[in-house]
Amino acid sequence: AAAPPGAPELPRAVPDPAAATAAISSAAPALAPAPARPASAPLRLDRHVVREASRASRSAVQQMAEASGQPAGDGPVGADQRLADSVARTVKPDCLPPGGTHGLFTPLVAAYRMATDTCRNR
Fold this sequence. Notes:
Layout: H1 17-27, H2 47-56, H3 60-68, H4 79-90, H5 106-115
């Protein structure tokens, strides 16, 4: 595919193979792998490191409360309060809704609650 007479000569899209080979071989030393470095120090998980990580992960509110000596949140829960909370969680409501009905669905709701054991029978 020769160019018509008088047309400007276009640059070649494919470079000279000898020049391309020379360019690749001169770039090869720059692409050599980096020398191997030793791994980082082994992971230390003693109580001091874990305690410091725990302190660092506290929220700003918890850190301010700790610095002021005030409890953040509800404070410590006693054994009697834990027992009262667990008893309150185990109490099941009646199968029929207190103070209201579900209309036509009341028998279905009561049957579902009995079948799934989420209520106490009268």
